[in-house]
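ligand=pyrazine-2-carboxylic acid
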Amino acid sequence: MVMTELTAKDALIAVDVQNDFCPGGALAVADGDRVIPVLNDWLRRAAATDAVIVASRDWHPADHCSFSEQGGPWPLHCVRETEGAQFHPALALPQDTLVVNKGEAQERDNYSAFDGTGLAERLREQGVERIWVGGLAQDVCVKATVIDGCEAGFETHLIAAATRPVEVEPGDGERAIAAMRAAGARIEANDA
Ligand code: VGL
Ligand code: ZN
């Protein structure tokens, strides 16, 4: 298999690999933890090649508008500072990972790691041109991040083996792939 060479102009973005999105968590994605070994391989390669490493996390206040108690679509999840909001302990993030918090405002949600975080500017400042995205959930925050990455002008790749969908409706995963492709993203099969 041919592995893409990463460089300092690449960024790896691990979206929301948090306890609550993994099996046993409050908003568990089926097989969500299976993304971790794949991401850990990419993290190793990214660190070895001076690529920029980003990890986003859903970081909600306890009364966030997306929670069903507030009339939102989701069960309570990823309340900031709680165990459920921590990165999964098996995810091997290096010390210098750029951590991006999102969903911090009570009254609005941010699915994309680019939404309201300044991430696009940070990456441009560092000379990043290409981004590689994996994490959870494929049909929610990964989808939004990939589409925003395309719109921000990055050459955007989805690492398909490093993501799983939550599928509120059957077929959401497939539809998310189609939407990301339509936005201009490249969908990488198992090993890019
Ligand atoms: C997410 C649902 C609610 C995600 C976040 O990270 O995909 N999904 N909040
Ligand atoms: Zn959320």
